[in-house]
Amino acid sequence: MFLNTEVGEGNFKRGSLWWKDLKEVWASEGWGRSFEDGFKWYVGNGKDISFWEDSWLSCSALNGVFPRLFSLSSTIDAKVAEFGYWANGVWVWHFDWRRPFFVWEKSLAEQLVQSLQGVKLVLGEADNWVWKAGGCQSFTVNSAYVQLRRDRVGEFSSVYSMLWRCKALPSALFTAWRVMENKIATRGSLVRRGVVVENFLCCLCGKEEKSSSLLFFVCDFAWRV
User: Fold this and answer.
1) Less packed terminus of the chain by CB within 10 Å, N or C?
2) Dihedrals φ, ψ of 92, to 5°?
3) Could you tell me whether strands 39-42 and 84-87 are parallel, antiparallel, or unpaired per DSSP bridges?
């Protein structure tokens, strides 16, 4: 699935408010290094991808893989399309360096060129982000949910199955699910979401940070209710 390139690492500051909020929630919930972890670049004409700063060739940006070459580049802020030219319909890579290489630096440049051998730019086709978890499908909330829970399925699947089979009121089951997911809007969770509260300690016992586990399993006052 392709997304507008404004979602990208180098361009994210110009993205929509919706994407910015989604990325912040993704990070604040501890779901990964950043929202972009779930995406990869699809290279088109190379006009929107930062050659050195975006993670378009591998899992890491090239300025981290080749820091020495990055420091020697004359075009550290340039896009992929600015590192070459078209000749008879074939893309040819070309680099501008601030000075000639030392002997040991030449091997780094050769490694960089080798890593670019399989890259094929496409004339007339824009660069895009691809949602990795969606495969050939579009980005959906469900695909994001599956992506986030893939490491926890084995740990909680049987518990959730037992929960939803219980003969209890739907509201009670939903509350139990929220407790298991730590989704109760306690003072502690509100603080992690950036909400300003006067005191994040439990308002019942006043001993510890108010969280779902404290409220339902630890707090002495709550147990007496």
Assistant:
1) C
2) -120, 125
3) unpaired
Place of tokens 């990055």: 70
Query: What confidence score (pLDDT) does residue 172 get?
Result: 86
pLDDT in tens, 129-153: 887 765 555 666 666 666 666 655 5
What DSSP line would sit under 47-111, residue for residue? SSSBTTTS--SSSS-HHHHSHHHHHHBS-TT-BGGGSEEEETTEEEE---BSSPPPHHHHHHHHH
Give which of 30, 29, 31, 38 is closest to 9, Cα–Cα: 38
Structural Rg of the chain based on CA atoms = 25
Helical H segments across the chain, by residue range = 17-28, 62-65, 67-72, 103-115, 141-149, 153-165, 170-180, 187-192, 212-213, 220-224
- Give the whole-angstrom CA distance, residue 215 versus residue 172: 16
Report strand pairing: 90-93 vs 39-42.
unpaired
Give the model's pLDDT for residue 129: 81
The Cα–Cα gap between 120 and 116 comes to: 9
pLDDT, tens digit, 9 for 90 and up, residues 154-187 = 555 677 778 878 888 888 888 888 877 777 777 6
Which pair of structure tokens corresponds to residue 86? 């078209």
Question: Two tokens at 177?
Answer: 């699910």
